Amino acid sequence: MLYLLQIVCFVVSPYPMPGYGATEYDVTKEKSVKGKRQGRLVSIKEDYSSEWSDSSGPTIIELKKTSLRGPPSFPDDSSFTDEAHAILKSADIEFSLKYNKLEGKLSLKILQIKNLSLQDVNSVISPYVRARFYRAPKQLFSFGKEYVINNLDKEVQTKMQKASENPVFNESFQLDVDQRDLSLYTLRLHLCDFDRFTRHILLGEVTVIIRKLELPDATEVTYTEKMEQPAEEDLGEICLGMNYLPTAEKLYLTVVRVHGLKAMNRTTNTTDAYVKVVLMHEGRQLKKVKTVIKISDLNPDFDETFAFDVPSQELNNVYFCAAVIHANKDQRQHRLIGRMYLGPSFGTDAHSHWVEMTQNQRKQVTCWHKLHC
Fold this sequence. Notes:
Blueprint: H1 2-12, H2 27-37, E1 59-62, E2 88-100, E3 105-118, E4 127-135, E5 152-157, E6 168-176, E7 185-194, E8 200-209, E9 221-226, E10 237-245, E11 250-259, E12 273-281, E13 284-290, E14 301-309, E15 318-326, E16 335-342, H3 348-359, E17 363-370
C-alpha cells in the first residue's frame, strides 16, 4: 500500500520527490528563473554551474581582424559608428607651473579649457583634465635628442565638469622633484570626456618638456597651449573570448592573455598586472570581477573565465569594460595601464567581436583588442 502511495504521489506531484534521483525542489530557484525570463538583469556570484543545462560543449573560434571586410549586420546597426564618441575640433588649455628650489616641489595648477569646439555641434561632454608626469632615465649624452617618455612618475586628475562647454577647474597639484632632476621631467595634459557609456575618452593632449621652460624660483608662470589630437600610444593588447549559452542565459568572458605591456616598475623593469572586468548596462555596473596578479610579466597568460547572467533580450544592451592594472606594492593606489570596451556600440573590432559571438552561440569567439588610456 505504501509503495502504491509513493507511485501516485510521484505521478501527481509536478515537482520531483527527494530520494528518487532528483534534487529537492527549491522555490527560490524557480522564482529567480522566472525573473530572469522576464528580462531582469541580476548580478550573480562567479560560478560555472546552472540550474539549466546546455549539452553542447564550447567550440573556440578565433576572430581575425583581416577576415571581416566590414561590420556584420546587427540589430540597430544604423546607429553604430566607429567613432561613437565626441571628437575634438579645437581647444586651448590654460595652466600654470611653479618650482620652489628650497622645498624641491613642482606645482601644477589646471585653470581652464577655452575655445572648446567639437566636430559635432550637438555633442555634449563632461570633461576633466588628467596630468601625467614622466621622468626620463638619466643619460650621460643625449646627442640633442628628446628624452623618451617612458617612465610614468605620477598621475593626477581634476574633477569632472558635467555638460560643460568651457570648464573652469582651478585645481592644484604638487610633485616632489629634486632640482638636479627637474630637466628630466615631461608633463602631458590630457583632456578627457566621461561619456554616456561611462567610458574615459581621450579628446586631446598637450606635451610640455620642462627643461625647455624658464621657471623662475618660487614664481608662478601661466601658459596657454593649443590642444592636439591624441597620439596613438602603444599600451599593449588583450585577448578576450566570449561564449553565450542561450538556454542557460549565461554570458562567459575569458581573459586569455595580455601582450606587450609597458614596464611599470622602474626598479625591476617589469609589471605586476591583473585584469579587472566590469559588466555594464546603461552606464550602471552590474558585476565586477578580476583575475589573479601575474608577477613580473610583460606578456601574462591568464586563461580565467567568468560567468554573467544576461537574459537573451538584454544581450544587445550590455557591454564589458576590461582594464589592465599594475598592482603597485609600494603605493596604496594601483595604476591603470590601459583599458578597452567590448560591446555592440563601440569600435569596429569590439563591434565585430560582439556580433560574431551572438551569431555563433555556444561557441567561444576570441579576438585581440588594443588597449587605450
